[in-house]
Every structure is written in C-alpha cells, then in structure tokens.
Amino acid sequence: MTPRIDALQYANWSERIFRQMRAGGVDAVHVTIAYHENFRETVLNIESWNRWFERFPELIVQGFAAEDIDLARQTGRTAIFLGAQNPSCIEDDIGLVEVLHRLGLRFMQLTYNNQSLLASGCYEAEDTGLTRMGREVVAEMNRVGMVIDMSHSGERSTLDAIAHSTRPIAITHANPAGWHPALRNKSDRVLHALAESGGMLGFSAYPHHLRGGSDCTLAEFCEMVARTADLMGVSRIGIGTDLCQDQPDSVVDWMRSGRWTKARDYGEGGADNPGFPPMPEWFRDNRDFGRIETGLREVGFSVEDVAAIMGGNWARYFAQSFGNLNHGRREAAQ
Amino acid sequence: MTPRIDALQYANWSERIFRQMRAGGVDAVHVTIAYHENFRETVLNIESWNRWFERFPELIVQGFAAEDIDLARQTGRTAIFLGAQNPSCIEDDIGLVEVLHRLGLRFMQLTYNNQSLLASGCYEAEDTGLTRMGREVVAEMNRVGMVIDMSHSGERSTLDAIAHSTRPIAITHANPAGWHPALRNKSDRVLHALAESGGMLGFSAYPHHLRGGSDCTLAEFCEMVARTADLMGVSRIGIGTDLCQDQPDSVVDWMRSGRWTKARDYGEGGADNPGFPPMPEWFRDNRDFGRIETGLREVGFSVEDVAAIMGGNWARYFAQSFGNLNHGRREAAQ
Predict the structure, then answer these.
(1) Number of C-alpha atoms within 13 angstroms, CB side, residue B148?
(2) Given A57, A99, A329, which is nearest B332 (Cβ)?
C-alpha cells in the first residue's frame, strides 16, 4: 500500500494529536520546528522533539531517511521529518546546514515572507533572486540532502532556486495563484518550472490559501487539485495541509512578526482578522485525510492517482532528496 | 586482525597527521573537540571536523558506532570518534546530551580539573562527588550511549560515577598514581573499582603522567602497563596517548585556564615549564604505535594480550558503550 504523507504541519503538539495521526492513518509528516528561531533556539525545539520521541515511541519515530516511512508503517507509527520555514536557524554559518541535517532537519525554506540572507520573500516589494550566500547554501543543501522549500518565497527567487538547485526543490504548502490570487500562492510559470525540474507542490488547506477561505468546499479544493494535475502532471503533486492545530493566536504573531518589527504584521490576515482562521469543515485534523481521498475520487482521479497524491509522490521525492544516514561514508574510499 | 585504537588525542589536525595515522596503522582515534567551549563553540568545532571529513574522505571517516571501526579498516581509513574533556559543551541543559550524541559526541568528561556542574575535578581541594545534575546527566549519557570519562576528575567523584553509572565508565588517559604520583594519575582503589565494574583505563604517554617525565623509557612504560594488568586484568586496559601533536603553547593555556581565571594556571606544569612538555622519544606521533607494541611483547605480554591492549579491548568497550544510530528506533514498537 502507498503511504499517506502530509508535507507540512505546525501544530501545538500533544499526545492527542499524535493519536489523531494514527487514527487518520498518516504515515509521515513534515513538521515545522522553527520560524525566526536562531540556531540555539532551533536546537531547543529539537530537544523538545527528542522528548516527544522518548515519551511516545509507540506513536511516533523521527524520520531521517525515506526508509523510515516504511519503518513507521511496519511498526504502526508516524514518521516525523523536521523542517524550518526560514533560514534563521543557520544564522550566517553555512556549516550549520550539515549540523542541522545531522540532527534531522530535512527541509528548509530559503525565506519566510521577508528578505533573508539567502533570497527574497513573497511579501517584499523587490525580489533580487538568490543572494551570493543563497547560491552557496543551495549547493550545500543539495550535497547533504536537505530539501529547498520555497513556499514563502518570491517568484524570481523561486525560479532562481529551481534553476540553481541540482536536486528538485519543493513548495510544500501553497496553491495555484490562478485559482486563488494570494501572494503566498504560486503562478503557473512557477508551477510549470517546478514540475519540469522534477519538483513537488503540496496543496495547502490553510484558509488564506483557499478560494473562499474557510468556506471553500471539499469539492472546490479537489477540483483545484485536478486542474493543477492537468498543469503539472499527477506525479508532481501531493498534500501539505499547513495544519496549525491547537495553536494560540500568539503563535501566528510570532510566525508573522518574529523579531523583525516592533509593529504587528498581519501577514495573510488583517487588522480585522489577526488570528488563525478556522480550518474548513472538511479538514479539522489528521483524522480527515480520508475525506480528501474520497473527494479526489469524486472529481475523477483513479485509485492509483489518488494514492500518488495522498503520499506516493512525496515518498518517491523523499527518497530522491534525503540520501541516507551513511551517505558519503561507506562509498568514499571505494 | 584486532584493530589498533588510541583512546585520546588532541592534535593540531592536518592532512599530515591523518597520513601519519594511516602510516601507523591506527584504525580508530578518540579525539578531543572541546575543553571549555560552550555549546555553540563546540558546534563550531564539529563544523571544523565536518570539513576535515569532507576534504579527506580517503583518510578519515567519522565514527558513530563501533561497526565504523570495521568500516574504516575495510576502506583503509581511520575512524574518528569525537569527545569533550569538560561538560561545558552541554551548558546547563541536559537535552544537549542527546543533541551532541546525535552529532557524534561519544565521550564526555564530567570535569576538567575544576568543579563543574556535574562533579569535582582532580585539582579541587574538596571533592563533593556527583552533583544533583551530575547524577541526571550520567543517567542520560547511559541512555543515549555516551561514555563517562573521568580522566581529569577527583577520586570521590570518580568512584561515585563508577557506582552510579549503569554502563562501565572509562578513564581514557591516565596512569596509576602508585607508579607516578601525579594528581591526574589514579589510585589503586579507583583502578580496582574501575576494573571490577567493567570499565577501561587508557595509558597516557603525556610526560606529566610518566615517571621521569619526557625521559621515561619505553621499557619503564611497558613495565608499568604490566603491573597495571596484574592489578586490573589485561582485558581492562588500553592506550590513550594524550598526544597533543603540533599544538602551540597557547593551546595548553586554553586547556588549563579557559575563561575561569584571569590569572594563568599552570596545571600539571609550572611557571618554569609552562608549555607542552616534549613527548618521550619513543612516542612522537601516530607512526610509533608499533614501538609500543614491540615494547609490550618485550616485557612478556603474549601476542593475544598485546592485541587486546593495543585496540581489542577498546573495540569491545566501544561496542558495549555507544549503541548504534538506530538505537531505540527500530525496537520501540516491537
């Protein structure tokens, strides 16, 4: 059977949520562990995850290589792959890419809305593309096996990353801008380039990325998936719900404003709706993946295509992207 | 064939030294990566090692598990196992034990001469034994598979660690105080307790630990080994040269004085000989392990015993101590 994989969640983690992952048959999740955190703060968040892994070894297991998805399935657990939504975790030090990869970081966004040391975010007025350090870090991420995620990046930076990276990159959580023209959603040009390079798009169920917001219906969402499959090919798409379950609104403030402004940035929201928007009724938590699966069947996808979209494509992409723990060690002298 | 292992070196690393390791047939070395460094500084030193591993994959490979000694032998390389001589690298945060273990730290001294957060050093007037945090950290090191090294610790703290640890501890680089009564050398009481618990002693070739200092002869050194084998049993001893090759004297100042004093501490030296002492003529660098092997044969050890002392005992101890990278992951749900 094909695994069920979610390529982006950032929940207020708890035993309850881990049990919902099991109830929903979710075999692997890419979880965000840092936004604006510096290296030491990111390590503190890794320490928190180490405690979850120690406390709930019957529910979750840390994923380091794609094979760990199989391990998770065989042992009835969910494999948790760590990622960062901003490169603040590597500070100004390229050596931290390998260090964080060793600790399990398998995804890193080059930007989170704003200009970073590496590239431009989707909310900047000017997008300068990859910086000098950005090109170096992309090469280093390629070397160690860390996915370049451009979900929150500007158009030019994203096209630059697709062109410069020797491994296919990912947009783990966004939807086509042609369907819903949010700054965070992606143009057909980006989606074409992403698909042609072998990259992956994960469809977001976060209301600000949905036409109609929280009121978007499952049928509308699945129709959007079908149109994107026509555009990119069914092998280039998956799910990346952006589920921010049980988070207090103080967390969305941290995500948007970090320490870069003394004011309050509303990001995709606004002064009238500053908090987390309510999720659509058809996707409340990890137990609802079956509903998306049913919805995809109902808009005409075959059983095989649904399996690919619900996890098979991500599983293949993870295997291509992460290498394995012994990468370069056993082969070096042979 | 039995591997050749050195349980402590802290050289000014270079391609030349790595080539000398190969020329000397050294299959594994425990290298010190930090003395008084805090966590972030220790990570910088790990980054430096990552660069060595990337630059010289035909000479060295990072050791994570005892099996990596076999990998190194099969591929004609030296396995490098990382260690810290002080717990400053974990700061006041027990979660950093697992983090540093994941990054490859396989040894940590609970103290370096002075009182630490964990235990008392051999130069303190009062030895309080393991502290509250010390007992917690010993248990955590036991859990993840990091060796408790008491080479620079006080007597009571060392006996406490032996008693409290559920895995045999090590004294990677010291000699019997009964042979040469330096503060850094160990009493028969400690050596007895260490041997009975299944722990290991690594014999140091550092002049301050040798009777006669730099003038100590190979025969005298090997006689000392033979007397210690009588005391501890031949299965409890190995080599831990404390080779500090090519280091400038500024480094021994850092080792001794760190940031804990504004004055200059002379450690085992003195105002009249503040720098690194010259190594004995029979052990200049990694190419001289064959001379120790010959010397041990000449004081009457059998071929088998020499092989055990030169590496076989450490290989067994590493296998007992480190666990493997998948420790706890594959077994948890079974």
Answers:
(1) 33
(2) A57
